[in-house]
């Protein structure tokens, strides 16, 4: 009986340690940056109310249901903040359209076709990995 109890306790520990890895899921095609697709693994991090300055986050524009989000920076960019993201809400004033770069999002905002919210929906960390052409 003691062996079974020990085995069940060990199995429970293994499952507990494995759960966070499974919770993030496999890398998914998550957003566009400069017209290219990038993938990431979602994390449960939440940097809200930490007091970190706004400039320490890069923006991800949440374009809405059925559309792929757009981020403003990537690894290798001089101003890339290492995977710290501020998710910015978008309100459309025209039919929602798939945009693929931050420059497009900002141009559409300047033209009055959409509004970029002033308050982030979420502040978090996730890695960013380029999807080679033909695989995205």
| Total count of helical runs of at least 4 residues | 2
Q: Based on the structure, what is the oligomeric state of the protein chains?
A: single chain
Q: Biggest sheet, in brief?
A: 8 strands, mixed
Distance linking N and C termini: 52 Å
- Write the element-wise H/E pattern from the N-terminal end onward: HEEEEEHEEE
Proportion of residues in β-strands: 25-35%
- Poorly predicted parts: 2-27
Q: What percentage of residues falls in helices of 4 or more residues? A: 10-25%
Q: What is the radius of gyration?
A: 19 Å
The number of distinct β-strands equals 8
Shape: globular
In terms of structural class, how would the helical and strand content be classed? alpha+beta
What's the mean pLDDT score? 80
Describe the structure.
With 136 residues, the chain is α+β, with helices and mostly antiparallel strands. 24% of the residues lie in helices and 27% in strands. It has helices spanning 2-24, 102-110, and strands at 28-33, 36-40, 58-62, 69-71, 84-92, 114-116, 122-125, 129-130. Strands 1, 2, 3, 4, 5, 6, 7 and 8 form an 8-stranded mixed sheet that branches.
Provide key terms for this protein:
136 residues, alpha+beta, 8-stranded mixed β-sheet, 2 helices, 8 strands, 24% helix, globular
């Amino acid at each position: 009986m003691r062996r079974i109890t020990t085995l069940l306790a060990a199995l429970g520990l293994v499952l507990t340690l494995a759960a966070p890895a499974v919770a993030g899921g496999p890398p998914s095609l998550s957003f566009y940056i400069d017209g290219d697709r990038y993938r990431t693994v979602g994390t449960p991090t939440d940097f809200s109310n930490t007091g970190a300055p706004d400039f320490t986050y890069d923006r991800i524009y949440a374009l809405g249901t059925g559309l792929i989000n757009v981020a403003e920076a990537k690894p290798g960019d001089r101003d890339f903040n290492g995977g710290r993201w501020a998710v910015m809400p978008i309100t459309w004033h025209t039919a929602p359209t798939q945009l693929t770069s931050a420059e497009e999002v900002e141009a559409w905002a300047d033209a009055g076709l959409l509004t970029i919210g002033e308050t982030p929906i979420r502040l978090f960390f996730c890695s960013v990995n380029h999807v080679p052409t033909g695989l995205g």
